[in-house]
Amino acid sequence: VVKVQQHRSFVIADIPWLIAGAAEGAGLGIRFLKHLTRCRLLLHLVDMCPDDGSDPVENAQTIIHELTAFSPTLAERDRWLLLNKTDLLPEQDVAEKVRAVVERLQWRGPVFSISAISQRGTAELCQAIMEHLEQQWALEQEDASLVALELEKREKMQQEARQRIDELREK
Fold first, then answer.
1. What is residue 111's DSSP assignment?
2. How far is residue 18's CA from residue 32's CA, in Å, rounded to a whole number?
3. Which one in 69, 73, 97, 169 has a CA-CA gap of 20 to 30 Å to 61?
4. What CA–CA distance (Å, rounded) separates 87 from 109?
């Protein structure tokens, strides 16, 4: 639970180690992906300085591919790009590297440059998440059809998840 202020909080779920092939049953991918169907907002955390020297964009594209393969509806969920470990980059290179990743991914949603370990940018991120969720809740209070639409999306994601799992069992 992330507490932004007294009486203002939200629940966040960490889905670590989603690997290539997860939608095909590799690792714990199906179990992790199924949990995502319950989420209103997906935070796509990208390591800007991977220990293994891999390309952050290719790593992000792997996750995007796995989301789409598992559930096209899930892949259409609101997603924000969190570029982590930017504090490990030379300060003069951060803006250019962030711009390059965003451009190569053709990212259209919100982007946050953060450092989880030093907590740089995390308070602003949590505040933005809280405001986004509160805005969604307020819209749903005003228009009950939005609640029905959200329930339909969740049901569709669950159906796609069950279908994917059944396909894998048949293999």
1. E
2. 7
3. 169
4. 22
